[in-house]
Design goal:
A hairpin with a 2-residue loop joins β3 and β4. 62% of the residues lie in helices and 2% in strands. The chain has 22 helices and four strands. Strands 1-2 form a two-stranded antiparallel ribbon. It has a two-stranded antiparallel ribbon with strand order 3-4. The chain has 591 residues and is mostly helical.
């Protein structure tokens, strides 16, 4: 069993003294959250009460408690060793810096909003000084040295040797399942807390705390262990994720937050469809949002809107099939003549298609063209869906909870998302999915191995378009209207082609959960931080640059891509892959 060694600390403080100071600072920070931070209720969160933390105090308390817990684990206390399978000191340092960041931001926001440091009560000073002591002392802890990377041959050689230490005891299956369920329960609580934040200061503090905490848990090795458990129990993981998602609208009291959840699912579902095209097949599509628009316009035309030029009203299932079928047809018509192109040329053609779609529906107004889409005014007054007598536009009482219109559409969109996840998972694990990966890795080699690259690329293009159209049918009813401005290449409001592609890259190309995570972040953060609307694209670009530099495989890395990224960092150049190790070889072997 490998152990972590330590290196020289960032600050010249004896390790024992640094650990004691970290404990004392974290305890001081935690104690300060139970005292008033300001004297007036003009600052949101009611930080004037002693003995009852609120608002930003809760975030500081959480960070201090985690810092205290992980610092105690460094003393080899029985029962705390499971917290740090990957290292002890790095998580403490990250949690201490996160607590200092949250506390410092809170004190700065109070001083800025109320007009000076004089508005801070003793509790704020105690927590601030304690967080500073904690961060400085944590920097005095020796850094955990990462495990030495080895080549594939060295790992194979070591696996043949007799183990020098007993393997760690594995948990029974029921305990592992309980851990997965608990993890999703905690995740639901964190997400609900973040989306339910009532003011900007609290949401920014939430981002600081969760960002540092997640990174600390990753450095501690807990995220890797949880990932291994979810990979072992995949069906249980998907079931737990679905149950947690179903419970979300029951945790929300305001209609606007359930609407954010519904739009995140729409954005995430379309991003998952784009992941078929970009992540699996490796086709750079810059006009993908047009397929979402095709499905939305097709559903709007047949859903009984008073402004529809067709003037028909299909039932729910027929409208959904119409939108998906229309997107499928457009995907085949656009893909058939263009998919013989590669790389930048294909990207330019798809970008042109996206713009052509937007301009076309903008001109079908009866003046520049046939009166079909009502031009720039779009198709408004789309009625709410009705399915077997269930009106999605009305409130309904379920298990003692009242679900409004947004919650109804959230649950409907959740069903659509589950269908798309099932399609993505089954197609990615099939022979066709392995062939897509082969084409993505090396199309020439894949063709030489007998794979019909054009047919399979067209299939990926058509499937991605169909999934986008399926989400578009629901989006049209959620928003009451469809307009050409909703389907641009880049804009301030997602989904658009640039943000969809960014969600796939940010989350992790070729993964199941990556695009959903990326879409949630890219939609939720702008929705909660309205004051940053003018700087959204700038901050978005900075975030992508940092991501490409620090984690090029994305937040949820594909295991195969992660291995490639890591092995390219080794000092010795890797040996050339044999044909069976290439993407084409993998697909041929699977066949």
């Amino acid at each position: 069993m490998t152990t972590n060694h330590t290196t020289t600390p960032l600050l010249p403080i004896p390790t024992a003294a640094a650990r004691i100071a970290t404990l004392a600072g974290a305890a001081l920070t935690l104690a300060g959250t139970f005292l008033a931070w300001t004297w007036t209720k003009e600052f949101p969160g009611d930080l004037t009460v002693d003995g009852y933390p609120g608002g930003l105090q809760v975030l500081t308390l959480t960070g201090a408690a985690l810092t205290l817990l992980y610092t105690l684990s460094g003393y080899d206390i029985r029962g705390l060793g499971w917290l740090t399978p990957g290292g002890t000191n790095s998580p403490v340092r990250l949690l201490a810096l996160g607590t200092l960041g949250t506390t410092g931001y809170a004190l700065g926001a109070i001083s800025y909003n109320l007009g000076g440091l004089v508005n801070l009560e003793p509790g704020a000073w105690i927590s601030g000084i304690g967080a500073l002591i904690t961060a400085l002392a944590a920097l005095g802890l020796p850094a955990d040295q990462p495990h030495t990377r080895t080549t594939a041959w060295e790992r194979f050689r070591d696996s043949l040797r007799a183990p020098t230490a007993p393997r760690p005891r594995t948990l029974p299956d029921w305990a592992e399942i309980l851990i997965i369920v608990a993890a999703f329960g905690i995740g639901l609580h964190i997400f609900s807390y973040g989306i339910d934040t009532d003011y900007t200061e609290l949401f920014i503090g939430f981002l600081i705390t969760t960002g540092f905490a997640f990174t600390a848990l990753h450095r501690a090795g807990l995220v890797s262990r949880l990932t291994a458990l979810t990979a072992k129990h995949r069906n249980i993981t998907l079931t737990a994720a679905l149950v947690a998602a179903v419970c979300f609208p029951f945790t929300q009291q305001k209609e606007e937050y359930a609407l954010i959840g519904a739009n995140i699912l729409i954005f995430g579902t379309v991003a998952l469809g784009l992941n078929v095209v970009v992540g699996l097949a490796g086709l750079l599509d810059l006009g993908y949002v047009a397929f979402l628009g095709v499905g939305a316009y097709a559903a709007a035309l047949v859903s009984g809107s008073t402004m529809s030029a067709i003037g028909v009203e299909f039932p729910f299932w027929a409208a959904v099939l119409t939108g998906a079928a229309a997107s499928l047809v457009f995907g085949v018509l656009i893909g058939a003549p263009t998919l013989r192109l590669r790389g930048d040329y294909l990207a330019i053609v798809t970008l042109g298609f996206g713009e052509i779609f937007r301009l076309t529906v903008n001109n079908l107004n009866g003046n520049s063209g046939p009166d079909l889409t009502n031009g720039s005014q779009g198709i408004p007054s789309i009625p709410d869906l009705k399915f077997f007598g269930f009106d999605f536009g009305l409130k309904h009482d379920v298990l003692g909870f009242t679900l409004g219109r947004s919650a109804n559409y959230y649950l409907l969109m959740l069903i659509v998302t589950a269908v798309v996840v099932l399609v993505f998972r089954r197609s990615g694990e099939s022979r066709i999915g392995r062939a897509w990966v082969a084409i993505r890795e090396d199309e020439t080699a894949a063709t030489a191995m007998g794979i019909n690259a054009f047919r399979l690329k067209l299939l990926a293009f058509a499937l991605g378009a169909t999934l986008a159209g399926l989400a578009g049918t629901v989006q049209a009813h959620v928003n009451y209207t469809v307009t050409p401005e909703q389907y641009q290449f880049a804009g301030s409001v997602p989904p658009n082609s640039a943000f969809l592609l960014a969600a796939v890259i940010l989350g992790g190309m070729g993964t199941l959960s990556g695009p959903l995570v990326g879409a949630a972040l890219l939609y939720l953060i702008p929705a909660k931080l309205q004051f940053m609307q003018d700087y959204q694209l700038f901050l978005f670009g900075v975030a992508l640059i940092l991501l490409m530099r620090l984690r090029p495989e994305g937040l949820v890395a594909d295991r195969r891509k992660q291995l490639e990224f890591h092995e390219t960092d080794e000092p010795d150049a890797p040996e050339p892959r044999q044909p069976a190790e290439t993407g084409a070889g993998i697909a041929k072997a699977g066949a």
